[in-house]
Predict the structure.
Amino acid sequence: MFRKKVRKKEFYDLITMDNYDVIENNTPKICGNILDLDVRQVQITFDRGKTVVEAQLQKNRWCAQTKNKLANGTYTVWAMAINSLGQRGKAEDSLIIKFIEK
């Protein structure tokens, strides 16, 4: 009996994410550095991929602006990148949304 060998997904150092502790905006802009200038796409998610936000790439930086308002609370934001070779990279950060209506 042959078993199919399960391949572990390999991630590459393609991007980093800026460090965010507390954000006082319920539609935050999340940014980071591009380590591999061959990166073609970066997306972020706050809900493990149910909704994604496409990032804008400019030279060695990427930024993604959320449009949906987030409730106050603690979140983990994940960023995924892909380069022209199909290699994937990821970054994540925990942050707190603390927005006060004025």
Summary: The chain has a mean pLDDT of 89. The longest strand covers residues 73-83.
